[in-house]
């Protein structure tokens, strides 16, 4: 099963949460923070403008994006958690 986002929505696979702190302590499962970055899996065609044209989505498949802690809607595809986020809720793209 595949999901094709609509309009200006982006399907993101969140990064794995940190398993240990900067000081080297391992975190139990319940103490791990919800990830706030992930990899773009798919994008919609873009937001529909008043003149009937579509505005291109500013991110591409494979890019790593940063988003707010409570942004988007979580879904599960083949046992893997993903987030569908509107493009306006994305905070930035991480460059390598």
Look up the CATH topology: 10 Kd Chaperonin, Protein Cpn10, Chain O
Ends: how far apart? 31 Å
Report the radius of gyration as a whole number of Å: 15 Å
As a percent range, the share of helical residues equals under 10%
- Number of beta strands: 8
Bin the strand percentage: 35-45%
CATH homologous superfamily designation: GroES chaperonin
In the sheet with the most strands, the strands line up as 6-7-1-2-5-8
Note down, in words, how this protein is organized:
The protein is mainly beta and 96 residues long. The protein is built from no helices and eight strands. The chain has one domain (9-16, 32-94): 10 Kd Chaperonin, Protein Cpn10, Chain O (Roll). The N and C termini lie far apart (31 Å).
List keywords for this structure.
96 residues, mainly beta, 6-stranded antiparallel sheet, two-stranded antiparallel ribbon, 40% strand
What's a concise summary of this model?
With 96 residues, the chain is mainly β.
Give the helices and strands, then pairings.
Elements: E1 9-14, E2 37-43, E3 47-48, E4 54-55, E5 64-67, E6 73-77, E7 80-86, E8 90-94
Antiparallel strand pairs: 1-2, 1-7, 2-5, 3-4, 5-8, 6-7
């Amino acid at each position: 099963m595949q999901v094709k986002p609509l309009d200006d929505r982006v399907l993101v696979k969140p990064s794995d949460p940190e398993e240990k702190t900067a000081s080297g302590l391992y975190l139990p499962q319940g103490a791990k923070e919800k990830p706030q970055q992930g990899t773009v899996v798919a994008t919609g065609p873009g937001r529909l403008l008043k003149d009937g044209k579509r505005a291109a989505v500013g991110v591409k498949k494979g890019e790593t994006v940063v988003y707010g802690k409570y942004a988007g809607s979580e879904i599960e595809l083949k046992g893997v958690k993903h987030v569908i986020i509107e493009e306006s809720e994305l905070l930035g793209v991480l460059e390598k």
